[in-house]
Amino acid sequence: MMFLRYAIYRFITMLLTLWVVSIMIFVIINLPPGDYLSNQIAELRATGQAEGVAKAEFLRVEYALDRPIWEQYLIWVGMAPGPQGWYGLIQGNFGWSFEFDRPVSEIVGDALWLTVLVNLAAVLFVYLVALPLGVLAAAKSETWVDYSAAFVGYLGLATPNFLLALMLFYYGNKYFDLPIGGLMDPRFEGAPMSWEKVRSVLIHLIVPTFVIGTSGAAAMMQRLRANMLDELGKPYVETAKAKGLAPSKLLAKYPLRMAFNPFVADIGNLLPAMISGSVLVSVVLGLQTIGPSLLTALKSQDQFLAGFILMFVALLTLIGTMVSDLLLVLLDPRIRYGARAA
Amino acid sequence: MTPLLNVQDLSIGFGTEKPVVQDVSFQVMPGETLALVGESGSGKTISCRAVLRILPEAAQIRSGSITFSSTQQGSTVDLLRQPERALRKVRGNHISMIFQEPMRSLSPLHRLGDQVSEVLLLHRDMNAARAKASVLETFERVGFPDPARVWRSYPFEMSGGMRQRAMIAMAMVAKPELLIADEPTTALDVTTQAQVLGLIKELQSETGMAVILVTHDLGVVANMAESVVVMNKGRVMERGPAEAVLSDPAHGYTQKLFAAAPMIPQVAAPARPETNDDPILQMRGVCKTYTMRAGGWRKPTLITACHEVNLTVQRGKTLAVVGESGSGKTTCARLALGAEPPDQGGEILFRATADAAPLKIHDMNAEDRIRFQRQAQMVFQDPYSSLSPRMRVGQALTEPMEIHDLGRKSERREKAAEMLRWVGLDPSMLSRYPHAFSGGQRQRLSIARALTLDPVLLVCDEPTSALDVSVQEQILCLLEDIRDRIGLSYLFISHDLAVVARIADEVAVMRQGVIVEQAPPDTLFYNPRHPYTCALIAAQPEPDISRPINLELVSKGAGSPATWPEAFRFEGVAAPALTELEPGHKVRCHV
Fold it and tell me: N or C: which end of chain B has fewer CB within 10 A?
């Protein structure tokens, strides 16, 4: 009951945050002078293509770019009627991309889900690698286990992602026959979901997951190790030892539980870092995520496309933080009861 | 009769340095209580931890043997030569341990039931249900009124005393033959300490287990132990039956410990209170409430830290505020220094000199505040954290003068050197860092720092509670000395009546934010009227076997105000007024 109330509270604050974020995104996108269409009109005028100008002018009115910025914002979000009536993000209209001359939803389409897939895989990789290595490094601190874990970790942190990507593609292809680039075999693109397609996606995921996840895993491992070492010196560990508990059981039951908090709290930070970090990697690896589209959209001031992608990333981040907050409440009674106490 | 535990020539050291425990030997008979007494760094904790081999990783046991002769099993083993796996069967099973800090010795993430029953699941062939029944029984035995609720609780939901009870339950649940209690009551309030000690004693007489009690407090020894081992710098100084050692200490070190132990004086008759009226600090009707913000949408709650506090510090005198944790005594100190504003309506007045116009601390502008800060300074409780580890002593001592822009650089330096001499340190120490100093020296440094601005009022917040008894004695002497030398006035905050007994001219006893009794110390100890004051005095462990703690008096006054005898009872903040029963002796009671 307590938890449910907190979850609802947390959900509502998330929506409020998302709303504030949407304002900021819109303002920032509109900060550079002009917009996609006015740039285009100027260019058409300069080259003397009058008929193009008329079309661009029409689009300007059609997408309300001639209105004051606050009105543009309300129309974009769907909180005020635009030229096409109440039709904004809230109503499920993601807007029009001028650059590609297609609806945003069509452009992003599959890329959206592939982005989520790639990043979830990377997050999972981070946790699966960092957890055992971090605990092991702490339990065997200052032995060769610790040192080699740290060495591998720092190597992962220090190697530029795109370099790692290129190396892995070369050797992966040479020795394990892994595919190079892309997220699925070209013959499955646009094809309906099938077992073969899933298999192809999974195989293509191996290298990107590794590339995007390594540095995160290295950092996380070091953090977990440090937290564990802090906890190992605490009196309650001594108490557990004085009870006659075996070392492995002790480690898992007491200090690990305590060191887990920062580990969980990082979910929220991890997602945005990975998504923005993976833009470059996606370009290099030729992944069909939204990363490359975002880059193009931002460069050409394609405001609805850029705005939508940024909103999507923000949403993922907020969901990540919310999930980690809720998990923390479940995991740590002090946080759970902290809200109730007094 | 073979001893239950026989420690022979134990030596423990770190790395290549000389041993911190050297040739220590002692025996514990079945059912006996042995006290290991010593100040910090004496090696008492390390010696007792060596029994279960729960030592810091860098510690090496260099020589000696610890033989444990279990009467239950009828076997004798050398614990130091057992493999780790075999030792695990001894830990928590035949020998269990209670640690100093109940706040940190329990895992905050596991329910108490889980943590306590773990011992049984490990060592006894029990299923979960039988273990639970056994744990609930133990919870009841250690004095929890509602064992089932404790089973479900997390440690942070309980007070320090309750947690220590849970720790005791955890140590007792497997019915060990030997209990090692490492300063089990040092972190507790004095009335709670009395109750916990009483509990350990009761359990011991019931089960017949032996106890090793590690403590620095001779008063605790007198109340608990049958035999005593006094340790200093890793060596045993003196050993023998408690009665002999306590009544006639043979070794010089033991005698020194005795001389330093503060005692509540047995007053024959109080002297007449002097009458002078030159207040330097006056608090009138001061209240302080804090708002606790709850999470989410919930309404914030009000917490009363101080209620209707009236206090006067006379010039050149010491007013002591005594109370246990949560009594509001530190809030008083913070209010007196203007660190926090009191609630509307309270007045705090400060007169720098006898004829100066009073300064309203509760309503100062920035200029007043700077002037006031020069005249009133504070000495903090923990000398380890109140000095910046990155500042040399010279910097730390001249900084206040720099802030107030006093003197030139050379003059500041000179003043700092002079202050060091005042507190009994050498001016050549100015260029050292605080880590090079012991706890007592650090506290001298913080006193020197407070004095650099030539204040007239010094607020001391538990200045000796983090120190060893012998060091505490020195610091108290120093404070008295300085007070008489330059006519300082002290507002002295403490939890320890015995400390206050020697330094204060007037004592105010606080409980739950209100002053319950106020009088000069002689009057207070000769004729304590309030049940809470009586409990505090009764709970003070005296290093005298013939004056044991009176648990009955303690339990009568130590509870919440709603359980006090009718004349004193109140609930919430609806306290009766402070009534002057005789000149200078005020008690909060219904008349």
Answer: N
Residue B485, Cβ neighbours under 10 Å: how many? 9
d(CA A266, CA A317): 11
Per-residue DSSP letter, B389: T
pLDDT reported for residue B298:
65
pLDDT for the residue B294? 58
What domains does chain B contain, in order, with CATH numbers?
Answer: 5-260 (3.40.50.300), 279-542+560-588 (3.40.50.300)
Q: Name which of B107, B116, B153 to mutate to probe chain A: the one with the most chain A Cβ atoms within 10 A of its Cβ.
A: B107
The dihedral through the CA atoms of B550, B556, B561, B567 has a sign that is negative
Stated pTM of the model: 0.80
Q: Minimal CA–CA distance to B191: which of B527, B563, B541?
A: B541
3-state secondary structure of B254: helix
Show which of residues 248-267 on chain A sit within 8 Å of chain B, judged by CB atoms: 253-254, 257-258
Given the DSSP bridges, would you call strands B585-588 and B514-519 parallel, antiparallel or unpaired? Answer: antiparallel
User: What digits encode the pLDDT tens for the residues A88-108?
Assistant: 888 878 888 887 778 888 877
- Residue B163 CA to residue B100 CA, distance in Å, equals 11
Q: What is the ipTM of this complex?
A: 0.78
Banded pLDDT at A340 (limits 50, 70, 90)? very low
Gap between the Cα atoms of B357 and B354, Å rounded: 9
Q: Residue A20 above 90 pLDDT? A: yes
Contact criterion met (CB below 8 Å) for B203 and B529: no
Q: Do A244 and B93 touch (CB under 8 A)?
A: yes
Which DSSP string corresponds to A168-227? HHHHHHHHH----SSSS-GGGTTPPP-HHHHHHHHHHHHHHHHHHHHHHHHHHHHHHHHH
Q: State which residues of chain B have pLDDT below 70.
A: 268-275, 293-298
Both tokens of B244, joined, read 């002999």
- Which residues sit opposite B11 in a β-bridge? B63
B230 close to B245: Cβ distance less than 8 angstroms: yes
| pLDDT number for residue A339 | 47
**Beta carbons of A22 and A311 less than 8 angstroms apart:** yes
Q: Residue A50: which pLDDT band, with cuts at 50, 70 and 90? A: confident
